[in-house]
Amino acid sequence: MSQVDSGSPVGVALIGSGRMGAYHGETLAQRLPGARLVAVADPAPGTAEKLAAGWGAPAAYTDPAQAFGDPAVEAVVIAAPARFHTDLIVAAAQAGKSVFCEKPAALSLGDLDRAIDAVRAAAVVLQVGFNRRFAPDWAAARALLDRGVLGTPRLLRSVTRDPGGFDPSWVPADTIFNETLIHDFDTLRFLNPGAEAVEVYATADALVEPAWKDRGLLDTAVVTVKFDNGATGIAEACFQAAYGYDVRGEVFGSGGMATMGDGRATGMVFSGATGRAIDTARSDQELLAGAYVAELAAFVEAVRTGGPAPVGGEDARAALAIAKAAARSVRENRPVTIAEVAR
Amino acid sequence: MSQVDSGSPVGVALIGSGRMGAYHGETLAQRLPGARLVAVADPAPGTAEKLAAGWGAPAAYTDPAQAFGDPAVEAVVIAAPARFHTDLIVAAAQAGKSVFCEKPAALSLGDLDRAIDAVRAAAVVLQVGFNRRFAPDWAAARALLDRGVLGTPRLLRSVTRDPGGFDPSWVPADTIFNETLIHDFDTLRFLNPGAEAVEVYATADALVEPAWKDRGLLDTAVVTVKFDNGATGIAEACFQAAYGYDVRGEVFGSGGMATMGDGRATGMVFSGATGRAIDTARSDQELLAGAYVAELAAFVEAVRTGGPAPVGGEDARAALAIAKAAARSVRENRPVTIAEVAR
Amino acid sequence: MSQVDSGSPVGVALIGSGRMGAYHGETLAQRLPGARLVAVADPAPGTAEKLAAGWGAPAAYTDPAQAFGDPAVEAVVIAAPARFHTDLIVAAAQAGKSVFCEKPAALSLGDLDRAIDAVRAAAVVLQVGFNRRFAPDWAAARALLDRGVLGTPRLLRSVTRDPGGFDPSWVPADTIFNETLIHDFDTLRFLNPGAEAVEVYATADALVEPAWKDRGLLDTAVVTVKFDNGATGIAEACFQAAYGYDVRGEVFGSGGMATMGDGRATGMVFSGATGRAIDTARSDQELLAGAYVAELAAFVEAVRTGGPAPVGGEDARAALAIAKAAARSVRENRPVTIAEVAR
Amino acid sequence: MSQVDSGSPVGVALIGSGRMGAYHGETLAQRLPGARLVAVADPAPGTAEKLAAGWGAPAAYTDPAQAFGDPAVEAVVIAAPARFHTDLIVAAAQAGKSVFCEKPAALSLGDLDRAIDAVRAAAVVLQVGFNRRFAPDWAAARALLDRGVLGTPRLLRSVTRDPGGFDPSWVPADTIFNETLIHDFDTLRFLNPGAEAVEVYATADALVEPAWKDRGLLDTAVVTVKFDNGATGIAEACFQAAYGYDVRGEVFGSGGMATMGDGRATGMVFSGATGRAIDTARSDQELLAGAYVAELAAFVEAVRTGGPAPVGGEDARAALAIAKAAARSVRENRPVTIAEVAR
C-alpha cells in the first residue's frame, strides 16, 4: 500500500451514485475533514458531472476504470449494484486503490474469494459496509462484551425491517438473505466475538407481496444461527414495516443483556391529543446517519495508517456463508451447516 | 355445572401450596372479593393447616380428595407439581368442581385429552394458568389486534427468562418446553388469533449448567413456529438471567408493531452515581402480580356465570402440541410438523 | 376508638357519590376484601338506593346523619363537595366513626382545626385523600429517600395537569390552589421528609379560559415553595392538558434524582404509520387506580388496628397552609411566609 | 462584512483554549469541513503553539490582538474567561472579524451594549454560544412549536445540573445566573417564540457548598420567569448532580407538551445483576457533542453567506437581563421586573 502523508486528506473516488452512493459522496465531500472527494464515477450520462460539481470534486467519470487510473485517487467507495461489486473490487485493487465496498461484497462465495485474493495481492485496504458495527448502540453493546460485563453470549437477536415501497420486479431472488439479512448475520457475529456460525435454519415467505412468491421473491424471513460456542442467534427481516425503518438488536449473555435500537430520531417526546409519541426516525439515513459517517471515517483512517480495516473480507465471507445456508435451508426445509455451503 | 348464586363469593379450594400455590391462596383469601378460600389441601404435614389458619380458610386437608368431597368447595385451583395435574383435574371434574389448573395441564397429549374429556362430561369450567394473556401489556396488544390496528401478524416473538437458582437434579427433561416455553407457545397463539401452528423447529442447549447436558437437561432454547397464516413466531427461554425475571413479547403485523414487557416494577427512574436505572421487577410475582390476580378473577367470574373460561382445554392442547414438536425437533435436528405429534 | 375484630371486614359508609365517590364505593364493594360497604349516602333522590343495590350494600340514605347513626358503620369515606367536608368530618367523629376524607379536608385553616379537634376528641382515625403517596412511582421514590439513597433533597417538582372539560361557572376562586395543587403541596412535603415549608411565591393566570380571569378563575399556576432545609419545591398545575391527565414528580437530592410519573397505562408500545406511541392513561382513574385502592386499603387497615393513618390532619393542615400562602402571593405579587397565613 | 468565497473553508482563529475552547478548536480542525482553523491564541506560554501544531493550524499567538491582525483570520471563536468577552468582541469586530462568543457575551448589560454596537458598526456576524438551541431534542421541540402543533406555550421548564467538582474559590458571585442559568433563560425564550420576559422571581442557596454561602456563592437556584404572553417559565440549576451532567426541558402549550433531554449517550440499555441501566452521558461534551458542532457549523455558514447568526446579540441581551433580574430578586426577596434592570 502506498504511503499516505498523515497531514493531508485521503483522496477518494465514489463509484456509483444511487441513494446510498449519494449519501457516501456527501459524507466524503462535507462531513469528513480527513477525506477529500476527488472523483465521482457513474454510468448515467451527466450524473457524475452534476454531482461532482455540486460537491466540488475535481473529476467526473462515466467509467469506473477512469477513476481507478486517476492518480489523485487513493481509495474508492463502491456503491454500485451488488452484481458489479466483485469485478469493481478486483479492478480497484489491481490499480492499487484501497476499497470500501457496500455490502454484499459479492453474491457468491467464489466471487468473494476472488475479490479477497485481489485485495491481498495488492496489499490494499478492503472494508465492507457493515454499518451497524458503527452505530452507537451496537458499539456500546460490543464495548460491554469486550469488558466482560455481558459474560458469554447465549442468545442473540438482530432485526431489520425496511419501510417498504420496493418494486418487486427489481428484487433478485435471495435478496432478503444476500442484501438485507447479511447485515444481521454480521451483527450476530459482531455481538458474539470469537464464535463462528455452524448451522442455519430459515423460514421465509412472501407476506408483503404474496403474488410474487411464485417468482421466488421472499420478503419476510427468520433465520436461526447456531454458533460454535453454543449460542443461538436469530436474524429476522421484512421488506415493509408500517412504521418505517427498524433496526434493533439484543445480546443476552451470562452476565446480562444489552438491547439496541430504540428507533429514536431524537430524545424528544411529544404528548398530544392522540397520545404520547416518541420522535422516531423514518429512514435509514436518519436512523444510521452517524454510523454511515463513522464507517467511512474508520476506512479513511485505515487507509491513512495502512492499518487493517475494522471489518474486512473475512467478515464479509462469514456473513455471506450464513446467507447462502439460509437460502438453501428455505429451499430444502432443513437445517443446513455452514460446512455444506462454505467449502 | 351447579348454579352459583351471583350474590355470594365462589367457594374455592387450593390444591398444592408451593410457591405459586401460596400466591394463589393469598389472592383467593385477600385480593378477590368475588372468591372465598374455603379449603387448603397440601400433602406436607401441617402445611395446609398453617396456611388455612393464616388466611382464615375454614378447612385444611392433606388429601385433595377431601377437598373434592367438601360441599363448600365449588371450584379448585390446582398448583400441585405438573405430573399430578391430569389426575387432579379428572378427580375434581368427576366431583363436579370447576378447575383452574396451573400450566401445563398435562405432560402428554393423551393425558390432556383425558382431562378435557372429564371436564366436558362433568360440564364444569376448566381454565389453564396461561397468565400472560392477563398481563396488561399483552392484553393491550391483543386489543390492538382485535381492533385491526396491527393488521395481519407476520412475525411474533415471546421471551421467558427465569432468574435462575434452580436445582438441576429436580428438573425433568423437556421442562423448558413443557413448563417454561409453554407460556410462550400460548402467547404466540394469543397474538396470532385464529391461526394455528403447523411446523416447529427448535434448538436447545445446556448453557447455564453444561454439566447436566448429558442427563438431558436443556436450559436455553429457541423455537421457531410456523403458522398456517404465513406468520412465523419465535419463542425463546433461558433458566437463568442475571437481571431477574424477563417476560417480553412482540407482534409485528401489516399495520404496525406492538412490543410488550418493559420489566418495570414502577415507572420511577433513579439517576445516581452509577448511572440511571429503571425500577425493575425481580420476581415473577412482582412482574406479573396483576396478571395472577386477573386470571383468577376471570376464572371465578366464569364459574359464577357458567360461561366458558377465557383460556381452556383446547388452548392447553395447542400449546402442548407445540412443546412436543419442539422437543422432538431438538432430538432429531429437523423441523417437525404439528401433525406428527398431535394426532 | 372502638375495638375492631381483626377477622371481619370493616363496615364503611360512602358519603357522597359523585365521580370520585363512585370510584371509592366500587373499591369498597369490590376491590377491598378487608372492607365491607354497608351504606351509601347521597342527597340526590334515588341515587344512593340505586348505587347501594348495585354494590350489594345493605343501606341507602339521603342524609349523611343517617349513616353516622348506623351501628354497622365503623368508618366513613367522605367524597361530598369540598365545602361540606369540615362539617361532615366533625359530625362523623362525634358519632365515633373513623373518617377518610377526600382532599381538601377543609377550605380554611380555621375549619381544618375544628375538624382536627373533633377527630382528636373522639379518638377516631382521620385520613386525607392525598392519593399520590400511594402511587407506586411515588412510594418507590420515598423508599429511596428513606433508605438514604437520594441524600438530602435540594430541588423538588410536582405537576398536576387535568384533561380539561371543566365548567368555569362551577369552579370557585382559588380552586387551583385548594383542590388541585394541594396534591402537589402534599407531594412536595412527602418527598422532603421532616422538612417544612417556610415561604411561598406563586404566579397564576387564566390561560385556558381567559374570559373568566375577571371573575377570579385561575386555571394555570406555578408555585415555588422554600423549605426549612434549604430545598426548593416547584408545584405546577393546569386545568387542561391536550394529552389527558398528567401527574409527575421529581426529587433531586445530594445522592441523585428520582423521577415519577411516566403517564403509561401499560408498558405496551405501538409503532404504526403515524409513529411510535406509548400506551398512555387518559383519566385519573386509569392513571391512579392502584393509588385509589391502596389509600383505602391503608385507611381500612388503620381503622382495623387503631393505628394512625399514614396521612392525617396535620398533613392536611400543612398542605392547606401552602395553598393559602400561594393564593395570597398571587394577589399581592410577593413571596408570602407560611407564618403569615398559618397562625 | 468581507465577501467570502463560498468554495473555500472559512478561516477561523480560536481565542482561548480552556476546556470548552479546546473542544471548539478540535471541531474547527477536525469536524467541520467548511471551516479551517488558521490560528490559536492563548496567553499561557507554549499552549497555543502545542495545540496549533496538533491540529495543523498554521499560526499560534499569545496575544489575541495578533489573531485579530492576521489576514488569514475571517472569524474568531472566543472561549476566554467571561470577564474578557466584551473587550475581545469589540476588538475582533473593529478588526473586521466575525465573532462566535461563548456565553455570556458580557457580564453587564452596559458591556453587552458596547459589544453589540461594535459588531453593528463593523457589520460582522456575532453569534453567542447558546448551544442548546442546536441540540436535537430542543430543535425538534421548536419545530413542533413552529408548525403550531404545541399551540400557545403556557408552562415551560429548563434545567441545568452540572456534575460538580468545581472549586468554590474560583466561582464569581452570580455565576449560577450569569453563566449557568443563562442557557436556561435563552432556552425558555427559544421555546416561547415571540414572547418576552416581563418579571422574574428567584430563590437560591448554597446547598452543595454551604460554607461558601457567606461569600456569596450560590450553587442551587430556581427562577420563575413570567412572559408577556401569560406563560410562566421555570429555570433551575445546581452545580452538582451525583449522576452527571443533566440538561432537560419541557414546553407545555395549548396543543400538547414536548419534553427534551433524556440524558442518553446511546439508546443501548444494559440489564444486569444490579438492575437495568440506561446508557447515559456523563459530560456536557458527550451529551451535547452534536450541538457544539452544529452551532459552529451554523456560525461558519452565517459568515460564509453574510446572513444573520441564528442566535445573536439581542438574544444575549434578553437572557442577560433575566439573569440580572434573578440575581436582584434573590438579594431583595421579591419579584423584579425586566424593566427595572434592562433600561
Automatic annotation (TrEMBL), chains A, B, C, D:
Q: Which UniProt keywords apply?
A: Oxidoreductase
Any GO MF annotation of the entry: nucleotide binding
Which Pfam family is one of this chain's hits?
Answer: GFO_IDH_MocA
Which SUPFAM superfamilies does the UniProt record give?
Answer: Glyceraldehyde-3-phosphate dehydrogenase-like, C-terminal domain (SSF55347), NAD(P)-binding Rossmann-fold domains (SSF51735)
What is the native source organism of this protein?
Answer: Pseudonocardia halophobica
Please state every residue range assigned to the domain named Gfo/Idh/MocA-like oxidoreductase N-terminal: 11-130
Q: What is this protein called?
A: Dehydrogenase
Gene3D superfamilies assigned to the protein according to its UniProt record, in alphabetical order: Dihydrodipicolinate Reductase, domain 2, NAD(P)-binding Rossmann-like Domain
Q: Where is the signal peptide?
A: none
Q: Top-down, what is the taxonomic lineage of the species of origin?
A: Bacteria, Bacillati, Actinomycetota, Actinomycetes, Pseudonocardiales
Q: Which domain of life is it from?
A: Bacteria
Q: Which family does it belong to?
A: Belongs to the Gfo/Idh/MocA family.
Residues forming the GFO/IDH/MocA-like oxidoreductase domain are 139-258
InterPro entries this protein is in? Gfo/Idh/MocA-like_OxRdtase_N (IPR000683), GFO_IDH_MocA-like_dom (IPR055170), NAD(P)-bd_dom_sf (IPR036291)
Membrane-crossing residue ranges in chain numbering: none
KW Iron (keyword) present: no
Keyword Translocase set for record? no
